[in-house]
């Protein structure tokens, strides 16, 4: 087996011709990505477009065709514990149907590093991660008693405690108010780690990601910087939203005026009674 990249290092994530099949259905096909060291990649797409499947494949939770490389190492060449030390995966939901202290939830992130129980270092890492997400005061609270936003922040602390060079986050801004959405994505960027984040908010992706990948009908439809990818045509095709690009007031980039209304039965596009702005 090939050793995992050293902890704390930045690594390039390279995906070549990735495919995932569930039973008789080909969910993803021919997906290739190249995420530089320390870059934040936002994954966008409509419901059922394959975002969660892609993130599961990047964490080796699903069988794939093609390859996923972290640095110079094939993910498939690593033992399970090495994968867990290399890629930290945050799912959309973390079960709260059982009583567990917040401290213990975050300590789960140290499992790949704990040979024989927990250590003083593990304790220090857990407390530092809770402090980093603004949840230190919740350490001795029951996870089941937390609000949805608090659970998201604690779950992110668990991912940070895993101390992996690659973060894979599936809709991490769910249940968070706007201020905490931006704060969490700021924290992701502040880690300096190579990160792949599934998002549904175009504005968050435009503001917070270095690169954007748009999935459509199980394959990569567009890939590049937010300004390159979030075009009128892409938004219309993938999201079914009518967009008009106008210059941003700052003079940097463009702003998209979005009309979320569906087409009429005649196939004509209705005149929007109001529009929503988002930055690209």
TrEMBL record:
UniProt-listed InterPro entries: AAA+_ATPase (IPR003593), ABC_transporter-like_ATP-bd (IPR003439), ABC_transporter-like_CS (IPR017871), P-loop_NTPase (IPR027417)
Pfam families noted in UniProt: ABC_tran (PF00005)
Record keyword Protein transport present: no
Disordered: annotated segments: 251-280
Family matches, as SMART domains: AAA
CDD domains: ABC_Iron-Siderophores_B12_Hemin
Keyword terms: ATP-binding, Nucleotide-binding, Transport
GO molecular function, one term: ATP hydrolysis activity
Residue ranges of domain ABC transporter in the record: 13-242
Xref: Gene3D superfamilies: P-loop containing nucleotide triphosphate hydrolases (3.40.50.300)
Name of the protein this chain belongs to: ABC transporter ATP-binding protein
């Amino acid at each position: 087996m090939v050793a995992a990249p050293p902890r704390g290092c930045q690594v390039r994530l390279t995906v070549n011709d990735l495919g995932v099949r569930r039973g008789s259905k080909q969910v993803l096909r021919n997906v290739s990505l190249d995420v530089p060291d320390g870059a934040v990649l936002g994954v966008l797409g409509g419901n059922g477009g394959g975002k969660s499947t892609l993130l599961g494949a990047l964490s080796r939770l699903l069988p794939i065709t093609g390859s996923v490389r972290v640095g110079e190492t094939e993910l498939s060449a690593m033992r399970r514990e090495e994968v867990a030390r290399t890629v930290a995966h945050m799912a959309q939901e973390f079960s709260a149907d059982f009583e567990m202290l917040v401290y213990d939830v975050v300590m789960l992130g140290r499992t790949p590093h704990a040979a024989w129980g927990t250590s003083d270092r593990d304790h220090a890492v857990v407390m530092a991660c809770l402090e980093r997400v603004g949840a230190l005061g919740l350490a001795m609270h029951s996870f089941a008693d937390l609000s949805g936003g608090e659970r998201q922040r604690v779950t992110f602390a668990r991912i940070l405690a895993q101390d992996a060079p690659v973060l894979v986050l599936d809709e991490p801004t769910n249940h968070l108010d706007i201020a905490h959405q931006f704060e969490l994505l700021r924290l992701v960027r502040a880690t300096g780690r190579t990160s792949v984040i599934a998002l549904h908010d175009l504005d968050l992706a435009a503001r917070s990601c270095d690169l954007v990948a748009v999935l459509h009908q199980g394959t990569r439809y567009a890939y590049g910087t937010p300004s390159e990818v979030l075009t009128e045509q892409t938004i219309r095709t993938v999201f079914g939203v009518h967009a008009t690009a106008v210059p941003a007031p700052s003079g940097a980039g463009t702003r998209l005026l979005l009309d979320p209304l569906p087409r009429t039965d005649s196939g004509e596009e209705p005149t929007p009674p109001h529009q929503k702005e988002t930055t690209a």
